[in-house]
Amino acid sequence: MKWVVLTYFIFLFSSATSRDLSRFAQEAEYKNEIAHHFNNLKEEHFKAVTIITFAQYLQKCSYESISELVKNVVDLAQSCVANKDALACTKSLRPEPDAVCKELKENRQSFLGHYVYGVARRLPFLFAPTILALGDDYELAVETCCAITDIGVCLEGKIAALKEKATEMSLWHEHSCGIWKMFGEKTFQAQKLALLSQRFPKAPFEEVYRVANNLKGVYKECCDGNMMDCMHNKAQVVEYVCSKQNVFSSKIKKCCEKVAIDKGQCVVEAGRDEKPEDLPLIAGKYVQDPDVCNHFAAGHNKFLAEFIYEYSRRHQEFSTEMLLRIAKGYEEVLEKCCKNENPSECYGKVEEKLQSHIQETEATVKTNCDLLKNGGEFEFQKAVLIRYTKKMPQVSTETLLEITKKMAAVGVKCCQKSEDSRLPCVERYLSIVIQDMCKKQEATLINDQVAHCCNESYANRRPCFTKLGVDENYVLPPFNPDMFNFDETLCTAPPQIWQENHLGMLINLIKHKPKMTDEELQTIFTGFSGMVDKCCKAADHDTCFGEEVSLLFS
């Protein structure tokens, strides 16, 4: 019984299925995983984490029942610490590569069932059609690797790539459902229309608009958790696109030859078709036409949808968020100018306004990518941390570190891309980070200016946060000298811990002095590095730190 409980516990504790082979290296280092976790966490925290794990996954069990399970796990952990070579302690949850190949061959249905179960459990926001498509990708990966000599290395690489892909898609599905929930179907459909117009620039407006409209039904069911209808509706949309593949894209022919389950994901990953070479300037219909206001008044929503379609298919290098901002800017100009006596003269300058926003966005991306390139990831995160601590000093140190680390990761991922892919990448992934931040804001108010940026407009979230300054309504906390209490551990700390201490000090400093200039902050950074260097060479580290901290923050 104890081995059964242990197996279940480690499954949950490590967030891995028994078929996950992507951590062979770690398993080699920690052959006895439960003993490693017990020694690392110590008994009190090990018990607490075990309780949390069981409580989250066995929600209908009473506290008494879970306590008994926890006792069994702790008893086994203690026995494994005492005898690390015991069979029950060293039995691997991850089979040898040859065993993986054998299991796929002998019991394919069970093999894939375990994989689908594991993905669905780890990524609850991932839609059913995508999970099934990932199952097929997993089967192909195993079949490919089992046909070569070095099966383990092959599996490790392919499964790591699949896990990254699944996680990314889960984030995007959760993000899309968040757009629907917070901003409604109009914003959701506009975002999908811009995306599809970039992907299928040769398809006529009516066809692209129809698919975008049908996707509303797909996402409604998927986001509500109705996975059977989600599967059915998505399959219908994909079949429609494939029935007119010559109309939509030259890149989806092979996708449409696949089995039903794999078609949808293949079409999503097929990439963008080349835009037509003979597209006329968009200004002809939307700026220079003297009847623009009549068209706008006759069919407001359809006219703007056509504008999004035309602008998006011409600018595949733009993010969907910026395309929606452009459409919103155009709409605002028409709403104002069409009330004037001479509307065409008024809206004739709309291109200048839109171009100004485009240049501002591109300059912001370039500035940040240059900062990352010249200073490296740590310095880039530090710069972002300074900005965001000033914007929302009410947020905890842990959350600020988490958010800015994700933002720095977006820079690392996107700044290396070509110029025609960089902006879509940056705004796509920043939208996901901001959405997560806004969910925290929804649960616990951060401040009014953050709430405004989160709630006013989906497309304008990123520029809104970029333009935020110091929160003028922030009430300074009482000074606590313990926040700047450093000791000799700084002298032996590995680089990652040293960086975390550095950033933590920075957050506490800004929370107490949010209007510090960059020059003043740089003086502190230089002084901090000098203090660490001096005190780590001193005979009495702690005394030195105590004296130098007083001078540094005086």
TrEMBL record:
Which terms in the GO cellular component ontology are assigned?
A: blood microparticle; cytoplasm
Keyword Thylakoid present in the record's keywords: the answer is no
Q: Which residues form the signal peptide?
A: 1-18
Q: Which domain of life is it from?
A: Eukaryota
Q: Which SMART domains match?
A: ALBUMIN
One Pfam family cited in the UniProt record for this chain: Serum_albumin
InterPro entries cross-referenced by the UniProt entry: ALB/AFP/VDB, Serum_albumin-like, Serum_albumin_CS, Serum_albumin_N
Q: Which organism is it from?
A: Alligator sinensis (Chinese alligator)
Q: What is the lineage of its organism?
A: Eukaryota, Metazoa, Chordata, Craniata, Vertebrata
Q: Which GO terms fall under molecular function for this chain's record?
A: small molecule binding
- Which protein, by its recorded name, is this? Serum albumin-like isoform X2
